[in-house]
């Protein structure tokens, strides 16, 4: 047996700072060290297999062993491992990726900017929108409206757009210029007896009140939303929500920004969540599934009116003074191009639509479990919210850590899922089969029943 003092887990604890982690808890429990992947499964260093119920972080759409992506990376590494697109330079992988992305867009878009992560992409959106409104001679029109429980990333401005207290507390966030409106979670936010449609109407009215209170069209620049909120607990918007919200956004001449970092490339059963929910974005952000997460890359697509304004301004100022060393990195771009080819060749949407009911019906079979308050989801994303009392929807206290306990119990049965508070998220690789979904849910049931029995 390996010397425990020198195990990968203890070396991890000695050296690594993990994102979004309680460091003291990590020192005690150590790390699950993942050694390899195959299809929808990953294996730890002892060879134990786990179904990856979250596709990593909602991202490894093609699973963990797609050889064509490895080959695309290798080919590009052997041809042109790096080049930039500053100073009027370019390269074929970047160009082809932009062409393919624009061809997929749910509404006509004009140009694409590439970054490396969802956070950088959303920070870029803020810079773009500020620059755009300066270009149009509207220097006061700069505020972003985001939503409580939104997740848009972790950099200073993307973290400010995020509406999760844990991302703000002790970090002096949010920074100015970002305000948050209601989270569209009907189960938690609706008044007694309020229909989804009435809830959506009330939220649109609240949005309008907030915009007016913040200075109206003169100061409010953009509204940003994930079509389905991901890290906030998989919140599927109530019926008619985006239609009503969008009317308000347009009324105040604000730009609509769709953060499709999770929803993009099929997750909700259409290529983009914007199609599933009738959103007509002026700016659309992608990452994660763009490269099936095999290499870091994100993209921001902008409409032609936005492009024309910033293009004029770049001529006036001398440049659009924004960019990254790795914008459109050729190896990441080549992997993303190959990813998009695979989605098309294998008709990933038809597959998703075929297996989505297996996931959604399977999740809904948990609705009568004594610990389950709500089951929600669409396409290949869903969540189960655990409650103390089904009738009153009373939640557990955060320190009871029921969600993390269930996730940990599921892990011992070979399933990796994500506890977002007491909402357990499911977002498996898009290639998952009906049979694998059944296995995933069977493993989950074992974990859930075990925690329920312990609570006895
Ligand atoms: N936007 C959404 C909707 C996300 O879910 C995430 C990450 O989970 C981000 C942005 C940030 O992406 P990244 O972690 O690549 O910075």
UniProtKB/TrEMBL annotation:
It comes from Stella humosa. SUPFAM superfamilies: PLP-dependent transferases. The lineage of its organism: Bacteria, Pseudomonadati, Pseudomonadota, Alphaproteobacteria, Rhodospirillales. The keyword Transferase applies. Its cofactor is pyridoxal 5'-phosphate. Belongs to the class-III pyridoxal-phosphate-dependent aminotransferase family. PANTHER family: ADENOSYLMETHIONINE-8-AMINO-7-OXONONANOATE AMINOTRANSFERASE (PTHR42684). This is 4-aminobutyrate--pyruvate transaminase. Keywords: Aminotransferase, Pyridoxal phosphate, Pyruvate, Transferase. PROSITE patterns: AA_TRANSFER_CLASS_3. The keyword Ribosomal protein does not apply.
